[in-house]
Amino acid sequence: MNYKLRKIKNVVVLSLSVGATGIGLFFLGFILFDLISKGFSSINIELFTVDQTPPILDDVKGGLRHAFIGQIILTVVATLIAVPLGLLGGTYLAEYGRHKRIGRVISMLADISVSMPSIIVGTFVYAILVKPLGGYNGFAGAIALAIIMLPVITRTTEEMLKLVPWTLREAAFALGASYNNLIVKVVWRGAATGIFTGVLLAIARVAGETAPLLFTSFNNTQLSFDLTKPMPSLTVSIYQYASSPYSSWINMAWAAALIITVAILILNLIGKWLINWRYKS
Amino acid sequence: MKNKKRNQKNTSNAVFKFLTFFASSLTIVIIISMIISLFYQSIPAIQKFGFVDFIFTREWSFNKDIYGAFRPLSGTILTSIGALLLAIPIALGIAIFITEICPAFLRNIISSAIELLAAIPSIIYGMWGLFTLAPLIEGTVQKAVSSTIGLLPVIGPMFQSEYAGGVSIFTASIVLSIMVIPFIAAIARDTFTQTPDILKESAYGLGATKWEVVRYIVLPYSKTGVQSGIIIAAGRALGETMAIAYVIGNRHGPLNSIFDPYTTITSVLANEFNEAVGTQLSTLFLLAFILFIANFITLAIAKIYSRRGLSNEL
């Protein structure tokens, strides 16, 4: 009797956990299916070759070329700022500061910063780069994205460098290498795949960010290469188009949403595959 | 000659060391400048309303230029609690499935799929929530609940809503819970797998069922890890913006039902920051400051707690 009860309890709980996994997978499928069914039909060549047109002109096909290019500019500038700083910062934490209190404190603060609400970063950058400079600008948007990327790259660099065996450093020291030389030529090289993956994942993380751009680069209806002016981005355009009453704009928002999601998921899968390839064989 | 070379070597190492230290100290510099600048921008609002009064003021009126934090703050807390209540059992179920039940060849695929939920951008959750999930919930769950529980005396009105469209604190909690499930599930999975096999095998040897092994061996062993995972997820839920901004409805009114649209700190920021000036802008900075501090403290607790748990075990 007691044994039977325990058996039943076991089966019930295990079925519930199968059900929970089903719920998780169901929502992933639901969201992706919804994106594809609503976005795929609106993908056309004009989406990439034409800038924004007024939604009233139904015979003129509008596009999001300005937003695609703006998004790429913002992401590239943010990456160029955050990657060198994150690489150096992570190097301090894993090498010179490994056994120092300050290293541990910075590492923990970087961990907390990884989960910082991105809209707070937007308000902060607004206070230091938009309000004093008198207007929204692309540079502020790139800085906001860089602030979000920096702790991610710092922490992954730290973790990846710590995976490099200490004996490798000792071998290089024995050959008379200076610490900085051996970091660049031995440690960085040994951790290159891991660091590169960290950068990919950091890019994937900020490519879908909307909140930090709302108050910084804002948006622009035209193609712009000027970082001192408001700069269009895909995510803010999606937000604006999806909240509009025009069906042509809403359709374009779905198409853009599908493209950006697929791009981010592919980056994530590449990152995962690289880590598996490098560290699990 | 030899000494000169050695000196050069030492200088270049010192320069490199300084560069790396400078880069890593940026993390501290950014956090401190955020605290200072957000607080500095909030001073006019604090002077006008007073911090404690501000927290408990329900009003949000452009005409009277009076803004209170009570509604956005309570909205943030309620949606986060709702999301965690839904997400915790599901995420733990997923972790149990992946570590204990799932056949080995599926394990990687299923954990990757669940992790992909975390990679989908917040704004996509928002669009999907607004255009697909909200009407769906209105037509099914909300309809069913308000025509059954909603008819009961006393508690009934809490499940009735006069607002149409399905955007509500309930829908926001559902969307938010889907977004935090992968975080809790991943941390729980990692801590579950750290349970020593010998402990589990001993329990099996005594005749325990799989659930009993999970309940009495795995869960107690990974308690600290799971708890800090939940706190980290709470931090995420507090700060989530774009998804909430779409499905919460952004309404500064009294909350009478779980199906009423409401507001949160992040949705107020997303919707009103760009047009705000004067007192309103300063108020929004104060809300951002409060959210920043709340999030920071939450995550710091999770970090310190998980570290202490770790050192206790070792």
CATH topology of the largest domain in chain A: MetI-like fold
Quaternary assembly? heterodimer
Described by the principal axes of the CA atoms, the overall outline of chain A is globular
Question: Which strand order spans the largest sheet of chain B, edge to edge or round the barrel?
Answer: 1-2
Number of helices of chain A: 12
CATH architecture call of chain B: Orthogonal Bundle
List the helices and strands of chain A in order. Answer: HHHHHHHHHHHH
Largest sheet of chain A: none
Output the CATH class name of the largest domain in chain A: Mainly Alpha
Structural class of chain A: mainly alpha
User: How helix-rich are the residues of chain A, as a percent range?
Assistant: over 70%
Name of the top-level CATH class of chain B: Mainly Alpha
Q: From N to C, what is the helix and strand string of chain B?
A: HHEEHHHHHHHHHH
Q: Tell me the span between the first and last alpha carbons of chain A.
A: 49 Å
The structure class of chain B reads: mainly alpha
Share in β-strands of chain B: under 5%
Uncertain parts of chain A: none
Instruction: Give average pLDDT of chain B, whole number.
Output: 91
